[in-house]
Amino acid sequence: MAAMDLFGRRWALRILWELRAGPLGARTLLARCEGLSSSVLYQRLRELTANGIIAPSADGYELTRLGAALSHALQPLNEWAITWAQAQELNDRNPAEA
């Protein structure tokens, strides 16, 4: 499976993002990802596990070494997203200046 196909699936990147700080159980992931159904969560967990990105742990699921490397690769995207969100907030407050 191509990486972009895997990561482009609904909720895949969000699940990985939530796991960046450490292992989480399925219930915690569901709570953190408002709108995510349990069936989609378990499908993504199976796919990410099968591709070596995450692994089951005593505490739920955690990033593998490969998954952690992806987390580092996504950090610049997160920094851009923060800048974008701040710009959107400014535009919402001052639409004439946009």
From TrEMBL:
Domain (HTH hxlR-type): residue spans on this chain: 1-89
Gene3D superfamilies on file: Winged helix-like DNA-binding domain superfamily/Winged helix DNA-binding domain (1.10.10.10)
Gene Ontology terms, MF aspect: DNA binding
Domain of life of the organism encoding this protein: Bacteria
The keyword Ligase appears for this protein: no
Keywords: DNA-binding, Transcription, Transcription regulation
Keyword DNA-binding: yes
Signal sequence bounds: none
Protein name: HTH hxlR-type domain-containing protein
Protein's organism: Streptomyces aurantiacus JA 4570
